[in-house]
Amino acid sequence: MGRNGKTKAVLYNPAAVFFDMPLALLSIGSMLDPARYEVVIVDGRLESDPKRRIADEVEDALCLGVTVLTGKPILDAVEVTRAANAANQN
Description:
The chain is an alpha/beta fold and 90 residues long.
């Protein structure tokens, strides 16, 4: 459960050298009923420590969704996913 008693879904946009809106995450997040779900979008391009932020957010989340394009963003997505998995092992 999220901070407001709703089920939390965390969505991650990996760090990249380009700055397009994370439209895939916005689309998915907008499909979830706001009365039931708290959607948290974390943008790796804007966070100073995205691994820590994701680890904190997934502690009480139902799921983590990650979008990625080919190239270097895949490495960031894998590292952040591993950090989320490690946070949930505790």
